[in-house]
Specification:
The protein is α/β, with parallel strands linked by helices and 339 residues long. It contains 9 helices and 17 strands.
Length: 339
């Protein structure tokens, strides 16, 4: 069939945001390829799935429903994907770079010998020329991501093996409804055809999930600190600014690795992708990996002692100075002018 598949994660009957984002991107790619966009949902009690997925432009929804398939466990879900993909032969499969996607993706790609590119920041369709073999491949998936510590942006292609597989972090792609009234086909698959009884050897007896108290992704204003903040105490100053302007505090990977801030606040390729109305970058040099996670902010203010810091190239406003000098003045002037 050679269509484009999106594996949709589901929790308590709700399709995950990362899956809806991938459906949005998948719709665009499928239109370019002139193929169908197909969604795969595996779990239990899937009655409300179609009304969540069809508005994002899915032509087909495959449902595999069985009480033993929820919550996610590795072997049953990977067995379904492997056996279904052998049957329908998709050209592309996209899934979220979540704990589930990172477990499922490598299992499926290894079994199908297809290869997998993790943590992509962009997906495009294009051609590739293999000069040694004098071959030109058309309509390949460009799987784009930072590489070599963020020093380059690599474009990875898979000319021969199928499906072309990629994972994408939540927030990297935009989530947009394609057509509120869009309707496609629902295909219900028999779980017994794709999963053996022995695949259910592991049973989840009890499950505890704690939601994060930090909501960086949904914050309209973010004050982010990098290694240039200098210390954990320096981040206390950022928290004061954030409290003053009703913002959330974020951090670069370098700041998190140095122990200045908790990992839940990390923004970038290996953290969260954000699109706030205002992003205040304090002591952040602007490596590719960090920029990938915040470059679509509506307005970016960069505070840095280095006037040539790479982040200044994408900033709307550049303030040259140390965090210790600038941030207290921002707090002072904001309090003065907000009365």
């Amino acid at each position: 069939m050679n269509n484009l598949f999106v594996y949709c994660e589901i929790e308590d009957g709700v399709i995950g945001d990362v899956s809806l984002e991938l459906l949005t991107k998948g719709r665009s790619l499928a239109s370019q390829l002139n193929c169908k966009l197909e969604a795969l949902v595996i779990g239990d009690k899937l009655d409300n799935v179609a009304q969540q997925i069809f508005p994002y432009g899915a032509d087909t929804i495959y449902l595999v429903e069985d009480p033993r398939l929820a919550p996610y466990t590795s072997i049953p879900h990977s067995s379904i994907l492997i056996n279904l993909f052998k049957e329908v032969k998709p050209q592309i499969c996209l899934m979220g770079a979540t704990s589930i996607g990172r477990d499922l993706g490598p299992r499926v790609s290894s079994a199908l010998h297809s290869g997998l590119t993790a943590d992509c920041t962009a997906l495009e369709i294009g051609s590739h020329e293999e000069k040694k073999e004098n071959k030109v491949y058309e309509n390949l998936l460009y799987q784009i991501r930072p590489a070599f510590g963020g020093n380059i942006v690599a474009t990875i292609v898979n000319p021969e093996c199928r499906p072309q597989m990629a994972t994408v972090r939540e927030g990297v792609m935009k989530k947009n409804i394609y057509d509120p009234n869009y309707k496609g086909e629902i295909i219900k698959l028999d779980a017994k055809k794709y999963v053996k009884d022995e695949d259910f050897a592991i049973e989840v007896i009890e499950r505890h999930m704690e939601k994060s108290k930090i909501n960086i992704k949904g914050a309209p204003i973010i004050v982010a600190g990098g290694y240039g903040v200098g210390s954990k105490e320096g981040f206390d100053l950022l928290h004061k600014l954030a409290a003053t302007i009703n913002a959330e505090v974020g951090a670069s990977r370098a700041a998190v690795d140095a122990g200045f801030c908790e990992h839940e606040r990390q923004i970038g390729q290996t953290g969260v992708t954000v699109r706030p109305k205002l992003y205040i970058a304090c002591g952040i040099s602007g490596q590719i990996q960090h920029i990938a996670g915040m470059q679509e902010s509506s307005m970016i203010i960069a505070i840095n002692s280095d006037p040539n810091a790479p982040i200044n190239n994408i900033a709307d406003v550049v303030i040259t100075g140390t965090v210790e000098e600038v941030v207290p003045k921002l707090i002072k002037y904001y309090k003065k002018n907000s009365k």
